[in-house]
Design a protein that fits this description.
mainly alpha, three-stranded antiparallel sheet, DNA-binding, 10 helices, two-stranded antiparallel sheet, homodimer
Chain lengths: 188, 188
DNA sequence: AAATCATTTCGATAAGTATCGAAATGATTG
DNA sequence: CAATCATTTCGATACTTATCGAAATGATTT
């Protein structure tokens, strides 16, 4: 997950420099030695060496010895790979390491007291939904509850149990049977 | 020339950061508000704003107002463009700002295919010479080649190896020893 | 082995930038 | 218009890195 992303970041960093892009463009024509590249770009040999190191680190260039020189060439294979990189599936997987419950946790932290009860019931819909997801955890799947039992559980969180109860049903986190007033938790 | 490269550098810089990549991955799933992104990534709102600014600067994300929030979405068009970015021709043009061999580069871009082979052998003398300078790079200085070896190397570029071979000798880029038919690369 | 030439490594410096907190701005609701 | 909430801007800090010069390493020739 994360290591794969690091590799991607390194790849883009390798291309995120004007002089390295020029090197790639030059090597796309034909191989060059480091000395030639330095002359063409107006840079010192040590600087070019640094750039080539970053490029070869991600497999974009490779070197072969030739006389005094090392001759560097572009690895078009690495670029081919890049073309395939931007499929929707691969893009989505870039976010793999992300903690998707982060938003809920932040809202819960903002609206709850140390004992877990609610300081207030959020007015904004998105935050209310996060809080309702938090509250509904205290109900067990499969169980059926009377309205009185529901209110008792909800009262741990806030005195306005009616609002919470209506919210849970409205958010389709719980359901109610029309007549008898029995409630149960809905699964995702 | 250079402005175009700057744009490219900015584009890669926009993607050369782990958190921005995650944002791209998340927005590839569906739009998010800045607040949600901040919670998901464990960053402060101001930091996320900075990242979104860099991403929208290169057209990768766009925003639309929705209630209190601004909702950001990925511009898949910008990514499509990226796929086309790595054609041989465009790669070669990345080195346009480099002040040497500009003419040769243009000719090479015009006459070569993505794999580096020749679409055709130029008829005009100046263009032919530029192409010959390009071709001769694949010969190593000091080496001696039989005609068969020469033809094998030249066949990477064009099936008419005889024309290329005669051109190289005529342009004094390579020399041939009269009797035995051995060839070698001439230095500038 | 000594000399020569290119490349790499190292240390230093300057520029860039990711991140935060605080303040300013913008947008929406009451 | 006042209150509320999200976003942006600003100033500061810490980390990264592009660049250079000098020294070390590697490779080739004599």
């Amino acid at each position: 997950m994360s290591e794969k992303n690091d590799e991607l970041v390194l790849f883009f960093k390798a291309l995120a420099d004007a002089n390295r892009l020029k090197i790639v463009g030059l090597l796309a024509q034909h191989p060059y030695s480091g000395e030639e590249l330095a002359a063409l770009l107006g840079l010192k040999a040590s600087t070019v060496s640094h750039h080539l190191s970053r490029l070869s680190q991600v497999g974009l260039v490779s070197a072969r010895a030739e006389g005094y020189y090392s001759v560097y060439r572009l690895e078009e294979l690495a670029l081919q790979k890049t073309r395939l990189l931007f499929s929707h599936k691969d893009l989505v997987s870039v976010a793999d390491g992300v903690d998707v419950d982060g938003y809920d946790r932040k809202v819960i932290a903002d609206f709850t007291r140390p004992d877990g009860s609610l300081k207030e019931i959020p007015a904004q819909r998105k935050k209310l939904e996060a809080i309702l997801r938090y509250v509904v955890r205290d109900f067990e799947p499969g169980n059926r509850y009377t309205e009185k039992q529901v209110n008792k559980i909800l009262s741990r969180f806030h005195e306005d149990t009616a609002s919470l109860r209506r919210g849970l049903v409205g958010a389709k986190l719980m359901a109610r049977e029309g007549g008898g007033g029995e409630y149960w938790k809905l699964e995702d």
